[in-house]
UniProtKB/TrEMBL annotation:
Key words of the record: DNA-binding
Pfam families: TetR_C_8
Start-end of DNA-binding region: 39-58
HTH tetR-type domain segment(s): 16-76
GO MF term list: DNA binding
Name of this protein: TetR family transcriptional regulator
UniProt cross-references to PROSITE patterns, sorted A to Z: HTH_TETR_2
Keyword DNA-binding among record annotations: yes
InterPro entries reported for this sequence: Homeodomain-like_sf, HTH-type_Tx_Regulator, HTH_TetR, TetR_C_Firmicutes
């Protein structure tokens, strides 16, 4: 009996090209106007395809946004998985994953500046926050009861909220400020900040 996992069916390249045209058209339009002002006709015209073709791929614009958000998370997860290395310490692995994520965002800056850098499509920020929350929760489970957070008596859910909010806030601010730091530098600064908790330490003599 063949126990090998079935391969995922390959999508027709023509379908992929059409979907990419539609996605690019939507991103271009979002640079110019709010999502409420965008119609299927405008997307189709921008993508140089007919309206009927749009409906072969998506039910409507909300469905398109949902699928684009799904694709975004899938791509990010693939990038992070490819950066995994069992030989690294937890801290080093965290930093390397964050660098890989930031490099991916920088390489696709036009897309991310629209979907994360503006408030026009909150679904993308919400999806990324959900993914980051899951990652922070998994890390805490890995660290267990011996972690400094547990020993300090900090509730796990509060620590997860704090950690995931810090990550998404840093990423969004970096994008909105036109990515002034390299992915490596930003990831290292974030790690230093989290490790030393500068914001929580009162200045000497005060």
């Amino acid at each position: 009996m063949d126990m090998t996992e079935p391969t995922k069916p390959r999508t027709d390249p023509r379908i992929l090209r059409t979907r990419q045209l539609l996605k690019d058209a939507l991103i271009d339009l979002l640079q110019e106007m709010d999502i409420e002002k965008i119609s299927v006709n405008k997307i189709a015209e921008k993508a140089t395809i007919n309206r009927v073709t749009f409906y072969l791929h998506y039910r409507d614009i909300p469905d398109m946004l949902e699928k684009m958000a799904d694709d975004m998370i899938e791509e990010i997860q693939e990038v992070i998985e490819q950066s995994q290395d069992a030989k690294r310490s937890i801290e080093d692995a965290d930093s390397h994953r964050f660098i890989s994520l930031l490099e991916h965002i920088a390489a696709n800056s036009k897309f991310y500046k629209v979907v994360l850098g503006t408030k026009r499509t909150p679904i993308f920020t919400e999806r990324l926050l959900k993914m980051l929350t899951g990652s922070v929760a998994a890390r805490m489970e890995l660290m267990g009861a011996d972690s400094s957070i547990s020993k300090a008596g900090i509730q796990k859910d509060i620590a997860i909220w704090y950690g995931s909010s810090a990550l998404i806030g840093t990423i969004v601010s970096w994008i909105r400020n036109d990515m002034p730091y390299s992915p490596t530098y930003l990831a290292r600064q974030f790690t230093l900040l989290r490790t030393h908790q500068f914001l929580d330490q009162p200045a000497k003599g005060k």
